[in-house]
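Troubleshooting log. The previous structure file for this entry was overwritten by mistake, so regenerating from the original sequence record. Sequence copied from the archived sheet and checked twice against the printout by T.R.
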Amino acid sequence: MIPTINMKTFVVAAITLMSLPAAAQTQYYDNIVLRQNGNIVYQNKATNIDSIAMENNKTQIALYDRDGGLLFSTSAADTRMDVEQGAPIADMLDLVFNEDGTATDISALGLPVTNNAGGVSTYYNPTFKRYVARFNNTWAGATSTYFRINYGSNKSFIDLLKDGHTLEAVVMANYTPPIANGEANFFSSHEAGGTGLMVCKTSGSRGNELTFLPNVSTTGKSCWKWATSGIVPQPKQYYHVVGVWDKDEKKAKIYVDGVLKNAVDAEGELVLPKANSQWFGVGCDAGPSAQLGWNGDVVLARVYDAALTEDEVSKLWEDVKRYEDNASTTLVDNVQYCDGLAVKHGCYYQIMGTGFKEGDQLRLQQKYNATNTFTLPCVLTPMGVAVQMPEGIATGSYRLTVVRGTNTQLLGLTSLVVMDKIPAGAQVIAHRGVWNNSDASQNSVASLNAALAMKVYGSETDVWSTTDGHLMINHDATINGINIENSTYDQVKDQKLKNGETISQLQDFLNILKTSTSPTKLVLEQKEHSSDARNEAVAQAIVAAVNAAGVQDKVEYISFSLAACKTFAKYAPGVRVAYLKGGMAPADLHKDGITGLDYHIAEFRAHPEWVKQAHDLGMSTNVWTVDAPKDMAYITNLGIQFVTTNKSAEATIIKAYYDEAAKSSK
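Regenerated output below.
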């Protein structure tokens, strides 16, 4: 019998003080285990459990997750609760994917994680109760979305890797059968050496199978150890893949879904990748640049210092299988919704997804307050469903569940912000054009044309001046190693962008703008040059070029250089000019004729009062560069008028939601 607990809930962290001792090198999670009459009725990681409550006059024990959702409830009679050793903790790398397309290493090493410009698509997966990365690369080919974890300068990481290691991933392939014959890497660090998990291509007896491939040699020369599994990954099916290189045992092993599939000889030392390729790729293989791309999902990616035992791998699989076993019925797919949206009684809250049917309902259950639950009829829309917000809806976090007859599917957790008056949506400015969902490069003609075709409010681009006065379009100070500001036009003019285009001049963009019928404006960011005098001269040259093209009504000006902004304000009266650097209140900019604040979101988080102050002075407000939908909602709730983003399509959808919801506020 569980002893009487005087308070309603207690934090599991207090329980974990009773943890069992860990082995010398490997640390373990604590598991909370409930038994009735000696039989296990429930177990889970302590870190997955937020609180435990004695309910119904202390006759029921209930466990809640971090979202306030009920994990398990049972009679307290004849129930025993124990803390037992669980699965190993990933001590070298433990990747967690975030809502905004970034990723974080939560291991003790805390390695920095970067991604390709524009980010990776992530979505909340209700089965695994976490954000999952979705990669849309060409299978085994061109790689445009990936995460990169550098370790080449981290001696500790390298030493641990060379002493034996374990790689773990949960993945789902996305392809139309038959599978293409190519090497598709979902978690690897290969280039004439290294280690990784992948699907290999056919060669001899090898098929297109899940494979662990370390490079281990007794001579120091490259020698691949092919631990193939015999399992060809089927599309839309998740696999738990673990690769173990046991240096002492001289074996490389691969486990799939907790089962040892192969063990091959692997005696010697780990051969590292080439110096320019000492990084782990998620969604790709390493190399001088990302290669051999993955198409599909990656749920988790971890590296362990130890060569895990079969029992330890089994515990890793048990953790994954527990999620799959407890998964709700799949009623709808490709679900997307925005965290932090403003709502009010009577307005429609929208969820995107496929598979919704007439008669579906959406249940909103407030976090930690199951009594505050609303079950609302769904209205089918071209993109999913909408539900009308009821009376009594309050600001807070809610679990979203689709209800279809007796079947339910948990969609996830979202926060709602109740407002008396919902603001109009923030106008969308495409950061360096629209490029991340196409073959266009940043600041290319193609990216400008894509923005014009989308008809967003603006397409932002960056301007540098050469020594002989040519105005060039490029974000960085250099292109292919050539410093633009310190070079002549002849030295720069033939440089290529990633999509094969030649670097453009401002005049090229103005010519396109002049003939375009799109309402999209060109937002010209003058890059900070070497001195105030240089910034002032370049600003004058930009205004002169715009005036000569006759497109004054189709441009706006922004800069991190205060001198440039003042110059724009002086020579382009009536055109919006916004300052980028931050740190200045609206009144300080207004006195210099600058008409807009275009700041990082952190500036407005620290000074939300600046929004009203700016608007009261007739100034505009913009935030850069916001890619997370929840941040787009946050800045819109503040009343900010413009958002500069790499995710123009997503921002346009959120703008449309606010514009429609705002109608109910009038």
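The chain is about 20% helix and 35% strand. Archived copy saved in two places this time.
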